[in-house]
From TrEMBL:
It comes from Streptomyces noursei (Streptomyces albulus). One of its GO terms (molecular function) is tRNA (guanine(46)-N7)-methyltransferase activity. One of its GO terms (cellular component) is tRNA methyltransferase complex. Pfam families: Methyltransf_4. Residues 1-52 are annotated as: Disordered. S-adenosyl-L-methionine binds at E92, D117, D144, D167. This is tRNA (guanine-N(7)-)-methyltransferase. It comes from the Bacteria. Pathway: tRNA modification; N(7)-methylguanine-tRNA biosynthesis.
Amino acid sequence: MDEPRPLGATAVSAAVPRRGKPMFPDGTGPAADPAGSHHERRIRSFQPRRSRVTASQGEALRRLWPTWGVDVDGLSRLDLDAFFGGLPVVLEIGFGMGEATAQMAAADPGTGILGCDVHTPGQGSLLGLAERNGLSNIRVANGDAIILLREMLAPASLAGLRVYFPDPWPKKRHHKRRLIQPEFVALATTRLAPGALVHCATDWEPYAEQMLEVLSAEPTLENLHDGYAPRPDFRPFTRFEGQGLDKGHVVHDLLFRRRG
């Protein structure tokens, strides 16, 4: 089985509370910094935010996190079969407030969605949506997506990977913070089963070009289209997409498949 190549600078980093105060001191919710000092620090692909958690979001986290949440501490392998009751699992990195994730989970109850994010309000929002809509195929991972992939997921364990509207880091000096880099893709593909789908979407043209170049250069992936893909029906319209369209941006989807 393929082993991940060494990683460079990009990562999705674990959340750190404001002024160092724990939001869930009794351990009933996501940890502020689950990986702690166990793993090396890297340049973050986006900034963690733990502020402005509403009462309903906090309550959802306290009640549902022990069952449907997992902190990315990098210390143990995550048993996806046990976590999702045997469903094939798609990893979604960066789900915002979770509306689109909940819609996709409702439309495809036979697929588990593991959403990885560091935005505490979004974590609470997604768990609340899952409960209110009876969605038993959603789980939430809190922390660094690279540590999750590298340390906690088995090779060929994922049925898909979704990255929708990640931070484009438009300034040239910040391009190294973008998530879709060769090192990240090389790692992620080792965790994909043969035939697994990689789906990225962005409204930032230069980032779309980088995504297409990086994904096309990965030998274990094949592009399902000649360049960019038509918008697939299964990807819901997102708030970030609407903001981009309001600014006159063009949304690009990219669909690649893990070779057998």
